[in-house]
Amino acid sequence: MLPLQGLKVLEFTHAVMGPACGLILADLGAEVIHVEPPEGDPTRQLKGFGTGYFTYYSRNKKSLAVDLKSPEGKEIIFRLVPQIDIVVENFGPGTMERLGYGYSSLQSVNDRLIYCSLKGFLSGPYEKRHAMDEVVQMMGGLAYMTGPPGMPLRAGTSIVDITGGMFGVIGILAALYQRQQTGKGTFVKSALFETTAFLMGQHMAYGAIAKTPVPPMPARVSAWSVYRTFRTADNEQVFIGIISDKHWEKFCRAFNRPEWIADPRLQTNNARIEQRDWLLPAIENMMEQLSKDEIIRRCQEAEIPFAPIARPEDLFDDPHLNAGHSLLLTQLPDGSMAKLPNIPLEYGQTHFDLRLQPPSVGQHTGEILQSLGYSESHIKALSQNKVIAM
Known about the structure:
The chain has 390 residues and is α/β, with parallel strands linked by helices.
């Protein structure tokens, strides 16, 4: 029994933010119906970094391919909505209202409906503006914090889209709990810009307390004396983080530097920070004499924080991810298979599995229409008239 089993979700989404929200609901057990046009969700055709969007965010979902602008398509949606618990949408400001599928329209036929709208901005002067992940990373301070001084740089994944979708899930779960008390659904909204501001909150607090401009992460003065990457003898890199005096002692023993343990200048983290002008070059020189594997072995045995610098493709063969239940064998558009990340949760004895492969365009349209009472001849006629695709 999955935690959201029995709930039905109608997903009017594209790209990342909305599909990420729907993916989490689907992995948790909800029946998620992804609505796309008869010619297919444009996300399916994205190239470059968008190549994997649809495949990754569409497992455990069904595809309903329908022309939302046609009267027959609108009838299908309104016959379906009374069965639906949750609607998720992330189209541009005003699009759902213009099409006739806004909250007030759908809530009028199902007052238990929870309607989650995922936008660029919450209510305020910016709410009518379009936004994307990179736009809000720039205007929300994240790109400034990521790049070196004077070189704002977006984060290396769609972090705001994904976390914004996660906040949508949080709002939906809160609304489900409230519905248990009231019997009524509600409107939930999450947005990219405010999500970015939330992520920047710790830096805003730092600026308010320190009363100085906040430096980008590459130019920061770390709170820890050793907290960075080091070059190895085989021209690789390893990150090492020493975040306590106990870790420092273990580090020194692991790398055969007992004199650093005894050095009165290096007894506390703050004292070591004051000595970094000579200490860090000394550690750099020491690491450059050792291979990546040797450094990792010593750090692991000493139980101090470390990390090799991995690429995305390295995760396919990561022993930890493969030993657990963290990768799901997923079908790619060409029919081949690849292991992609599972939802990162442990939940009692429940395993969150891949129940449905990413669907083809309209793969479940016929099944859904039959459940609504459409006859085979009616479904065939709708397909011939390109109202639906199957």
